[in-house]
């Protein structure tokens, strides 16, 4: 008879605390396994594209990330920007809210985190995702993303007889996974330096500007590894939506005043 894992029998608030504790424990030297207890659909591609977390759980993650970024990392970012003379590129009169809430979560997750559990798929998803990100939202960029996903489906459905080279390569990847995980997180954070006009800012201060994206990338990568890619995409969208909606509300209030 199946028994309910202890993590799933806890109240929602305690369950999130357990998950947060697991994140803080795992992220120091991230491993490819185990999956989160109670994961639906097994380990195939279809399960990877199922939402494994309740929206309330993802909202709790977003609240945690917003709190740390605002109260702990935000002041450091402001201090570094003021010291180095960096300026944020955000244009409040033309806020790219659709890009922040829909486009960026999908493309950035496919680029930086989709291949973490499917390393072969990195061969096409990373260059196609990178090209789509550089092109920006549009028909051709969307076609590239769709093509990358189609290749992933095709590759996952075709039979793969074990080869003499595959298992040693996979064992090597599993050993190196902590390094791959943290390099992907650093690359994700570094991408967001493009949000700033750096001016004459010294290079050693630049990492401070993207500390919030680094922490967020760690959480997204942990969730992608333990749950699935859809969980990471949805959390990314929720995380981006909070500041965007706040800015829109403030601007509407100022306009009304």
TrEMBL record:
Stored InterPro entries: Rce1/LyrA-like_dom
GO molecular function: endopeptidase activity
Transmembrane portions of the chain: 58-82, 132-155, 176-198, 204-223, 230-251
Domain CAAX prenyl protease 2/Lysostaphin resistance protein A-like: start-end pairs: 97-241
Gene Ontology biological process terms in this record: CAAX-box protein maturation
Superkingdom of the organism of origin: Bacteria
Keywords: Membrane, Transmembrane, Transmembrane helix
Protein name: Putative membrane protein
Biological classification of the source: Bacteria, Pseudomonadati, Pseudomonadota, Betaproteobacteria, Burkholderiales
